[in-house]
Amino acid sequence: MSQVEDDENEEINDLNIVDQKVPLSTSIILDKSIVKKEPEITKITIRFQPIGSAKSIEPRVFKISSNQTISTLNKFLTKKLKSKELLRLYVQNSFQPLPDEKIGDLYNLFKTNNELIVTYCNTVAFG
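Structure (tokenized):
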């Protein structure tokens, strides 16, 4: 046999090894080793700023857990202002985030001086 044929036979043998089944106990160990880590939950500083005729709150700066959503923030602010209707929240005075967006994600993208600035009003302000 030539050297080329020997190399081809070795490659074929290597392929046969790949086709063999992995024992169940080994596959369970492999599955457990690929566990996704949960993102670390931290406290995020949020600064509230009213727009238009919306009431102002004191203090304007609060800390909230990074895994909370915008809807939780909206409920908190509505309760703090003793309002009967939900407020319109904006990030960076430009867009209204979806209710299920995580505060931590918005903070990582749009923080200013280590704060997430959230403006709020009673009616649609932008767009």
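The first helix runs from residue 3 to 19. The longest strand covers residues 43-50.
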